[in-house]
């Protein structure tokens, strides 16, 4: 288990709370455990934490998101095996299955001597769609973790498509920030791929509607939603995120 002094040093260096770093430490241990297992490459890591750990975003994240064609019982078995590997280095971890309308969701909870409240990580597995662009890459981290297994992950163009879908179907500032980050990285906007993602919801992609949803965010609410997931220096970008994002999307409409 990572020592408190190491947590504090890394947190001070990254300008975030030690508990944000501790959660990421457990996330990486879990991912390493999961992808060390046979057949785990049929589970594709995606979402905001994938942007952070694989694609170098500065935004920390609470959840681990995946797409797979495995059954819920197969996923549950792999999660239990991965947690068994993690707890060789950590205190016990509780696994709770959460009822959801679609997909398969579990919640990991771990009590430590560092806090009276538990560290929680939600695992979301989508089981109804195919991943069209995936690759493998180990995580790179300054955290004291001994080995890193290749992680089967979604590529940025497809994550961008899913982020566009998320923005028109839910209201989370972190989706706005992630889309901004992806466009700052010059990730292509593949309208056909976005439409394929929306086909699962029987929706048509409308770039004007996407821009309208982004414009609806008030600065203070956006800042509050994202602030706790970013190092202090990166919070200076907040006033520019939404205007820059809208400008880039409008440019995409022209081209």
From TrEMBL:
Pfam families in alphabetical order: AbiEii
Gene3D superfamilies the record matches: JHP933, nucleotidyltransferase-like core domain (3.10.450.620)
Highest rank taxon of the organism: Bacteria
InterPro entries in the record: AbiEii (IPR014942)
Name of the protein in its database record: Nucleotidyl transferase AbiEii/AbiGii toxin family protein
